[in-house]
Specification:
Blueprint: E1 10-14, H1 27-39, E2 44-47, H2 59-73, E3 79-82, H3 88-101, E4 105-108, H4 117-131, E5 137-141, H5 143-146, H6 152-161, E6 165-170, H7 176-187, E7 195-198, H8 206-211, E8 216-217, H9 224-235, H10 239-256, H11 262-272, H12 290-310
Helix pairs in contact: 1-2, 2-3, 3-4, 4-6, 6-7, 9-10, 10-12
């Protein structure tokens, strides 16, 4: 089994959850999606994230989907599972289930009920206790979705208290200064180094985040090869090349990050690329208009041209 650790780097793609037109889990498309992501060179996968419509799945559907992904991956890359839950009992239950299936670790975000610094730190102390001493976990910092602001100081307190928290999923925006502060603290030996993967808007700040010390990306985009190639170019020291590649994809990545319709755009593009059979988003969810589809076609054509020009 691939176990998540502090040296994780590369691209852990946040996957969508494929459904049929009727809204049922589409396990055949799930297999194609896994194959597609691995063919594009991702380092790992993350399932049951916010863009994976985790809150729209039943507990049994969540386990079925994770089981299908892990079986298809078959140990080739690590798989991280979102385990955030309203209470610790369902969090612990899901964690035990997915780890038994072969997950590499779990990811947890703070609930909107924690507000003060001490409340946030105490909550994650209980997360460590709940998932257990053998389970590596990821601290998700995504204030836009959680409403919880965690300062660098609070994150450092959490990491110092939690030896099994091996990764920070950095999604604050703007957050470059926060990323720099956390990386500087570990570089100075103030705490044990953790992996930092970024998730801002499909990688909208990925080149800058890599320069600030991020180890890669943990986010979603209908063209995962963008993140794979940008991270690889940056690791080779080809900073200009990384930015050139990123710039070619940026208009479509930006379009995909629109609040409300972004997931529908991503699923539409996955369908167009032959990855999934249906672009179905479970209710409540948006539908794309004819004008939306025209925008997407135009941006894909321009993206293709830019990539050809870049060679």
């Amino acid at each position: 089994m691939n176990t998540l650790d502090r040296n994780a780097k590369g691209v852990y793609l946040i996957t969508v959850t494929p459904f049929t037109d009727s809204g049922a889990l589409d396990l055949a498309s799930t297999d194609r999606m896994v194959d597609f992501c691995l063919e594009k060179g991702v380092t790992g996968l993350t399932v049951l994230g916010i863009m994976g419509e985790a809150t729209k799945l039943t507990a049994e559907e969540s386990r079925t989907f994770v089981r299908q992904v892990l079986a298809r991956v078959n140990g080739r890359v690590p798989v991280v599972v979102g385990a955030s839950a309203p209470g610790f009992a369902p969090m612990g239950e899901l964690t035990r289930a997915v780890m038994d299936l072969g997950a590499a670790g779990v990811m947890v975000a703070p609930p909107p009920t924690v507000r003060t610094d001490d409340q946030i730190v105490a909550y994650f102390d209980m997360v460590s206790e709940t998932v257990g001493p053998q389970v590596p976990w990821v601290l998700q910092d995504h204030p836009v979705s959680t409403g919880v602001q965690m300062s660098p100081g609070v994150i450092l307190r959490i990491l110092k208290n939690a030896p099994t928290c091996v990764m920070l999923k950095h999604e604050d925006w703007p957050g470059l200064a926060k990323l720099s502060a956390i990386r500087a603290a570990s570089d100075k030996g103030e705490l044990q180094r953790v992996s930092i993967l970024t998730g801002n808007g499909g990688g909208l700040f990925l080149p800058e985040e890599l320069t600030r010390g991020a180890d890669g990306a943990m986010t979603g985009f209908a063209y995962p090869e963008m993140m794979v190639d940008v991270v690889a170019a940056h690791a080779r020291g080809e900073r200009d090349r990384a930015h050139d590649l990123f710039d070619a994809y940026l208009p479509l990545a930006r379009y995909e990050q629109q609040a409300g319709v972004g997931l529908a755009v991503r699923k539409h593009l996955f369908k167009e690329r032959g990855v999934i059979a249906s672009a179905m988003v479970r209710k409540p969810g948006p539908k794309l208009s004819a004008q939306d589809l025209d925008d997407i076609r135009f941006l894909v054509q321009r993206q293709d041209k830019r990539l050809r020009d870049l060679g």
